[in-house]
Amino acid sequence: MAHGPAKGIGRWLFTTNHKDIGTLYLWFSFAMFLLGGFFAMVIRAELFEPGMQIIKPEFFNQMTTMHGLVMVFGAIMPAFVGLANWMIPMMIGAPDMALPRMNNLSFWILPFAFTLLASTLFMEGGAPNFGWTFYAPLSTTYAPDTVNYFIFAMHIMGASSIMGSINIIATILNMRAPGMTLMKMPMFVWTWLITAFLLIAVMPVLAGAVTMMLMDINFGTSFFNAAGGGDPVLFQHVFWFFGHPEVYIIILPAFGVISHIIPTFSRKPLFGYSSMVYATASIAFLSFIVWAHHMFLVGMPIGGELYFMYATMLIAVPTAAKVFNWISTMFRGSLTFETPMLFAIAFVILFTIGGLTGVMVAIAPADVQYHDSYFVVAHFHYVMVAGAVFSGTAAVYYWLPKWCGNMYNESMAKVQFWVSFIGFNVTFFPQHFLGLAGMPRRYADYALQFSDWNMVSSIGAFTYGASQLLFLYIVIQAIKSGKPVRDPKVWEGAEGLEWTLPTPVPYHTFSTPPEVK
Amino acid sequence: MSRRATMLFALVLAPVMSLALSGKVLAEEAQRWAVNMPRGVTPVSNAIYDIHMIVFWICVVIGVVVFGVMFYSMYAHRKSRGAVAANFHENTTAEVVWTVIPALILIVMAIPATSTLLDVYDTSEAEIDIKVTGYQWKWQYEYLGEDVAYVSELATPESEIYNTAPKGQYYLQEVSEPLVLPVKTKVRFLITAKDVIHSWWVPDFGVKRDAIPGYVNETWAYVNEPGVYRGECAELCGKGHPFMPIVVNVLEKEAYNSWLAEKKTEVAAIRELTKKTFTKDELMAQGEEAYNRSCSGCHMVNGEGIPGVFPSMIGSTVTTGDTINKHLDVVVNGVAGSAMQAFGGQLSEVDLAAIITYERNAWGNDTGDVVQPIDVLKFKQGQ
């Protein structure tokens, strides 16, 4: 069965090959990353100075909403599904994903979802303008009619994620090579197994939330309409019951990637493998019981407030254990600093900063001041961008030579790393200051005392944005004309089944399972 | 010192020196480059500030220790320095220790956090109750039991927002009429909203609470210092979200009492005006002003609205229809299930009459209809 890929566009439309589908996911995700990034540039350009210069406030709200939706659902989640498609079969010694046709479907419905969503930008009433958290009743009674497109798009994305998760769980549980027990699985596989369960648990909750919205808007129900006996706060409970696990859905696979890169470039096995697995599982469990820390100001009874504060603070324990494990892995290793390692180290530092500000916002009384301010914006961008996006970038640099058999340009990649790193921090570090000084988030315009840090932040954002175009160039250049690599291991310290395959990896791999001792 | 070293030294020192010299300028600039939370003027804001600083310094120490170890190993265990990798990958003792220590640190943080939170929630024994209602995009303050209520909205003109006029000192932080409070008095705020969710935030008070339709949330403030304090809406509430600031004027107790007395007289005077008959020109002039203040946020100054979101006023069945009652109904009672608010409780009869007259005659609507304040009053009483 050793035939290559089909020719022409049909290869991509009808493919059931996990590598092709992984590639599709990754390119789709990068396209969405550029789109969402473009929205961010519009936001930062408008916020460069006080006053409305470029866009109107109503369009600004569309930009913040679309930026959030596109980045979370279009860029970050598909990026990690793409990596899962590429790497999980190769890491567990399987020939492909367990459900290849469903794999094709789960990818190909995504472009439709995002076309629907993006098309609202050109419609009367404009795109969704109620924030990516789409709190009712702003997103129901007070929303533009295009909200129905948004709801349908969310349903499609949810269906795609659920199918993807079923596939990943079926693959991991059924198709591991003989001898690969659960506790011998690579960390990336473990983190994705847990993530997939999270997705299956919470995506239906999101579907429920948008369905209730649909009913309220079109069929006269009052789930979230106080005037009809409904409850706007119910929406927030339902949304965050999805939304909080969602942030771990995004970050857990990133943890997995980092747990591969750091050992490779430290030339030392991952420290505390089993505690890493348990920490991941505990984070996943805790993610279900802390959702209302996003709602400290809705007027919960104090008992609820205290419970959600304590439970949230608990998450710091397993998360800290992971950071300590990564550092112990580096400790007394033999370190080199190729680009994937630079991104991984930046991940550890910046994610830890995001984690520490996470502890701060978990303190309910202090959250009275932090809540809905730029402090929160800074906090979650340290986790989402320096966490998820940096780890995704690291993953591409790390595995790209394996995938295509060509090395990227190391010195250009290092430049890209430093520009990203500096640009990111210049963008988001001052946002801590803005938030503490009293600037609320989602503001199209602001008072004069916030002018200077906003300008700094905008300059950082343009720098960071430019560094992503450089990333695109480096990747294309590597694929087209990078220096060939033929060493199966690519990196001196790389360990695992995927590195036993030839470089570049053939179209079909592990047609006969390897033996794991 | 070599020449090179001297230059380096000078380079490093120059900013430090200039910082020291420009201390005064710095003080003025300090607010613009602010990096921290205000300490505020209430016991709660002070407690919040303290716990914020405790947690912040704990985080800094953790960061220094953790990153210190990491940077040490990045320096000392580099392959280029000939480091050979050790092969350890487990140490139960270490793992137990670094699970227990963070847990202990968290307990240390949780104790003051709990007591501060209890304080934030203690709205008992307030001397004054003020109901705060969020609307798109303004706040209404109601002094419960005093028969004083008014709307407070952005006073910054559009020309400053759209850069055709220079921005004033309190750009986007100035309102038509501030909330007025007495100093050293426990004030309870009852916070709600009429349309979407808003959030009432005054950083200097350590007060932020969501204003949610169908809910009345409680919070409180005891302000120690008279002064003017500025805050913002903190929950995304539509396109006017950045344009509904909060200004609180905290007065000495006597000054507050005379303000309240004056306010009551003013309310009575406005009621008296309801009986007066106005000319069409008077109503049009007042109507334009009131429309631009209360209606143009959605329906735009030119009456065209925003297609697909906010209806146009021009030639519409409401503004040019035969029955003025329909127009009165929409303005006074709002439209259920839409963004159109009920303005009956927000605006005086005079303003309502002026706005309706203006809408029926501006932008080429030219119906010639004139609505008097008394008509509005009769409509309200007749329903």
Q: Could you walk me through the main structural features you see in this protein, from its secondary elements to its overall organization?
A:
The complex is a heterodimer of chains A (517) and B (383). With 517 residues, chain A is mostly helical. Chain A has one domain: Cytochrome c oxidase-like, subunit I domain (Cytochrome C Oxidase, Chain A, Up-down Bundle). In chain A, 68% of the residues lie in helices and 1% in strands. Chain A is globular, with a radius of gyration of 22 Å. By secondary structure, chain B is an alpha+beta fold. Chain B folds into four domains: 1-31, no CATH class; 36-121, Helix Hairpins; 128-271, Sandwich (Immunoglobulin-like); 274-382, Cytochrome c-like domain (Cytochrome Bc1 Complex, Chain D, domain 2), CATH 1.10.760.10. In chain B, a hairpin with a 2-residue loop joins strand 1 (128-135) and strand 2 (138-143). In chain B, helix 3 (43-76) runs antiparallel to helix 4 (92-121) and helix 11 packs across helix 12 (373-382). Chains A and B meet through helix 3, helix 7, helix 9, helix 10 and helix 11 of A and helix 3, helix 4, strand 7 and strand 9 of B.
